[in-house]
Write a structure and sequence with these properties.
Elements (H helix, E strand, L loop, with lengths): L2 H12 L1 H5 L10 H4 L12 H5 L1 H5 L29 H11 L1 H20 L6 E7 L9 E10 L4 H67 L5 H35 L23 H11 L1 H22 L5 E10 L4 E9 L9 H66 L5 H33 L11
Antiparallel strand pairs: 1-2, 2-3, 3-4
Helix pairs in contact: 6-8, 7-8, 8-9, 8-11, 8-13, 10-12, 11-12, 12-13
Length: 470
């Protein structure tokens, strides 16, 4: 064998990885996966999976690397001189800056890297081989060898199919975090907005209390009221000022919490734009439950695990078919001055290890994944029941306050104030009416806050706690 023959043999061995790419397609499913046993080995097209728009929108081609995720913008300071902050601005800032979204996006990128790695064939091995060294005082046969493991049964394609469902699960978990962020931001925004409204209310009450002190002082000087009543009026005025300070501290705290939910974007004395009373649509239980089961990213993530387990079982069954290892050797025999070549083909015999344990494990994991979908759906129903109860109670309270309670409290205060100045009512009546007005308005704002929180949670697929570690 001359040198050109040697080069040709070694070149063929070096070209083996290119031939391996043709073997990375998904192999046909083993017969057992084609069977649909009742309640145990359902295929990837589950009802929850088909209903999920996340699964439909996040299809990953098993043979084409997915694009990289979008970058997360760095935090910034909100420009308070530009305009007030509304809910749309707050949501967009959070989507651009929230660390939970950055972490979830990084996990998607990691899953894409795992997808790429899963389909790569084994590297060829090259080296130097020497035989019969020292025979007849010669150096024996010296030469090069190259070997390659050929992956059979489409295992590389199955690896990437399994990894593609890991990507879908990571994308569903990214959507889970997005809903958490938007739900928290909506709740936090309305919490701060209602706290801002509470300041306006308390400022009005401080003004009313101050006017009461002036009226009481005038009547006291005329001898129509005792000093005790004057002192009570002043105490009430000072107490109202304390309530105003409390409302301001509550508003500052709500803004700081909202700043954290926006990803650390500073909100220095930023006025919030919006009305917590607007856009309060009525929710129906059947509609909320249907939307939740059809669009919940938690269901989509569980369904992705069903698909992954399905293909993992196919991969475990393909593992029973051994890979082929081919080795080519080209040497020069220094004793005879001939070039010689050799070929070795190795094929493991599946006598003892036929991946029985791996197949059993994959079957159990598929069954567990199906059960987990049912568990997630039942848990969503349970959580929705509690949230919908809070929503119904808060909506009823808000409707009652909006209907007559607030109007009656305001009219009563105006009439008593006017009658008090004219001597028709005593100070005790005025004090009771003022306190009723304060308590009524504060209870209304609390009910409005609870209603907004319940709506945000239901709209956000019952997801919250975006800053919690998971």
């Amino acid at each position: 064998m001359n040198s050109w023959t040697s080069i040709l043999v070694v070149g063929c061995v070096a070209a083996w990885p290119t031939l391996l790419l043709a073997q990375s397609e998904v192999a046909p499913l083993p017969p057992i996966l084609g069977q649909r046993a009742s309640g145990t080995t359902r295929g990837p097209s589950t009802s929850a999976h088909r209903a999920s728009p996340i699964h439909r929108a996040s299809h990953v081609d098993d043979q084409q690397a997915p694009p990289p995720p979008e970058a997360i913008s760095p935090p910034r300071r909100f420009d308070e001189a530009r305009r007030p902050l509304n809910l749309t601005d707050a949501e967009q800032i959070a989507l651009n800056n929230h660390p939970a979204l950055a972490r979830a996006a990084a996990r998607v990128a990691a899953a894409r890297g795992a997808w790429l790695q899963a389909g790569l064939p084994p590297n060829p091995v090259v080296g130097w081989a020497a035989d019969e060294m020292g025979e007849q005082k010669e150096s024996g046969m010296q030469g090069a060898f190259a070997s390659q493991e050929f992956v059979t049964a489409g295992k590389l394609g199955l690896n990437r199919t399994v990894a593609s469902h890991d990507i879908r699960r990571a994308e569903a978990e990214l959507e889970v975090e997005r809903h958490r962020v938007l739900s928290d931001v909506q709740s936090g925004f309305y919490d701060a907005l209602i706290a801002q409204e509470a300041i306006r209310l308390m400022e009005e009450l401080v003004r009313i209390a101050a006017e009461g002190v002036e009226t009481t002082d005038v009547l006291h000087r005329k001898g129509e009221l005792s000093r005790v009543e004057f002192l009570q009026a002043r105490i009430e005025s000072n107490t109202t000022r304390l309530l105003l300070d409390t409302a301001r501290h509550r508003h500052a705290s709500a803004l700081r919490a909202l700043s954290a939910l926006l990803g650390g974007v500073e909100l220095p004395r930023v006025p919030l734009a919006g009305d917590a009373r607007q856009d309060l649509r009525e929710l129906a239980w059947d509609d909320a439950l249907g939307r939740l089961l059809a669009e919940s990213p938690e269901v989509a993530a569980a369904a992705a695990m069903v698909d992954r387990s399905y293909w993992a079982l196919a991969r475990a069954q393909a593992q029973r078919i051994p890979n082929v290892e081919l080795t080519a050797i080209v040497q020069h025999d220094n004793a005879s001055q001939y070039d010689v070549a050799g070929v070795q083909i190795g094929l493991p015999l599946p006598v003892f290890d036929r991946n029985q344990g791996g197949i059993q494990q994959a079957r159990a994991e598929l069954s567990a994944a199906h059960s987990n979908v049912v568990r997630v759906e039942m848990d969503l129903k349970r959580r929705l029941a509690a949230s919908f109860e809070n929503y119904a109670n808060a909506r009823r309270r808000v409707a009652e306050y909006d209907g007559e309670i607030l109007r009656d409290a305001k009219e009563s205060l105006e009439l008593v104030n006017k009658g008090y100045r004219n001597g028709e009512f005593g100070y005790l009546t005025l004090l009771t009416t003022q306190r009723t007005y304060v308590e009524t308005n504060l209870s209304y704002l609390d009910a409005l806050r609870q209603l907004r929180e319940a709506v945000a949670k239901i709209d956000g697929m019952l997801l919250s706690g975006s800053l919690e570690d998971r």
